[in-house]
User: Fold Malate dehydrogenase from Solanum stoloniferum.
Amino acid sequence: MRTSMLKSIVRRSSTAGASYVSRRGFASGSAPERKVAVLGAAGGIGQPLSLLMKLNPLVSSLSLYDIAGTPGVAADVSHINTRSEVVGFAGEEQLGKALEGADIVIIPAGVPRKPGMTRDDLFNINAGIVKSLCTAIAKYCPNALVNMISNPVNSTVPIAAEVFKKAGTYDEKKLFGVTMLDVVRAKTFYAGKAKVNVAEVNLPVVGGHAGITILPLFSQATPKANLSNEEIVALTKRTQDGGTEVVEAKAGKGSATLSMAYAGAIFADACLKGLNGVPDVVECAFVQSNVTELPFFASKVRLGKNGVEEVLGLGPLNEYEKQGLEALKPELLSSIEKGIKFAKEN
Ligand SMILES: NC(=O)C1=CN([C@@H]2O[C@H](COP(=O)(O)OP(=O)(O)OC[C@H]3O[C@@H](n4cnc5c(N)ncnc54)[C@H](O)[C@@H]3O)[C@@H](O)[C@H]2O)C=CC1
Ligand SMILES: O=C([O-])CC(=O)C(=O)O
Assistant:
């Protein structure tokens, strides 16, 4: 389904201006106007993500913001003959204009890991970046859906929530930690091991977005496959360490950017579909949650016209997954609390 989405975007892009009725049920001319802002658009994720958002026919206005470099990225991307207008904004004084009227703000701003670092090692720099960007979101587009990519997601999402609470604009339905890359990885690794068509694979990944807080629920994977316990343990570990696998392979040149741009584009597309009233749009995301005793948790979420329409439960877990769930809670809670504390004290 994911691969077919990109294929269909590319196919539609190549017939830009022609009339079609998409799977989303809109004639090309009648899809609502939607502005998407990318903050950190000149970065490793930001650039390919901007490209993919430019290919999405649900976007009418694409706003590319970074502290520097965005005029070039915007000029480049704007030559692609698809629906959206593209404008680049550089420097803090242009942040307000970049955000005004945005329906969705995607945030891949901040520093990435180097080998030997954990995502939490990014906290000191990225917490401040996320806080200042969210302060501007509260001021200039308080109703936008926020897709938080910047790490550590387990802390940056609680920081964003606190900033919005302070500003009086918090709506828990509109704040998402993007955990889609964990789902993308779990699907890929499962398909490889189970020897099934990757395009048909579906499974939830719950918890958070760091190490053992990433909990893929392979017992719920479809199509079903007869994998051994050892194989499931190895798949779980590979999914949990997927980010580190890329960080090590890039050997000091950053972390996942291309697969993250793909995952971010898929998740933003799901948010756009939800906003546009497409029924039954369900993806995993790290959101405010009652699914466990933790205040934020990643699970399947039904997306709608206001963002989160319903946070879905975990479904049946096997013993191994139950153990994984209990094991992840202390670390996830401590990362959440760290974010809340930072936002309250700064
Ligand atoms: N949620 C997830 O699954 C994933 C999250 N990430 C995270 O995404 C973040 C970005 O990663 P990369 O794009 O590889 O890093 P990068 O360093 O290539 O790009 C980051 C961009 O953010 C910009 N930036 C810094 N401060 C800013 C500010 N105040 N306002 C606007 N832009 C600002 C930089 O100028 C740069 O262009 C990192 O924190 C990384 O850990 C990365 C992969 C997956
Ligand atoms: O591992 C990292 O630092 C980047 C990330 O979140 C991922 O690739 O899942």
